[in-house]
Amino acid sequence: MNANNPDIEKAYTKCKAKAEMNGYEIFAIRGVSRCVTSKDGKAVDFKKYGASPYCKTDDQGHGVGIKRGRSNFVYTR
To answer: Domain of life, per the record (predicted)?
Structure first.
């Protein structure tokens, strides 16, 4: 995947499955395809830095961070 044309649904499906398997309440997609979460998989103050202009969304409303290491598209259950 690349930042110009990321496969957002693939990244979302993969990360969501991992989060659900581990019982996490929160996960994010960083740098187009990297799955990340909080230390314990629970919701934290992810609004601390506000919305990032470095995210890309698809028609389903799913998204990814497109700037390596600088933006996260956060999902919660």
So the answer is: Eukaryota
Question: Mean pLDDT in each 10-residue stretch from start to end of the chain (77 residues)?
Answer: 75 93 90 85 74 88 82 85
Q: Are 31 and 19 in contact (CB under 8 A)?
A: no
- Residues 23-26: contacts with CB under 8 Å, at least 24 apart: 25/76, 25/77, 26/74, 26/75, 26/76, 26/77
Amino acid at 65: G
**Hey, what are 49's tokens?**
């830095």
Distance CA 27, CA 35 (A): 7
* Rounded distance between C-alpha atoms, residue 59 and residue 14, angstroms: 18
What integer pLDDT is reported at residue 14 of this predicted model?
A: 94
Q: Give pLDDT, residue 12.
A: 94
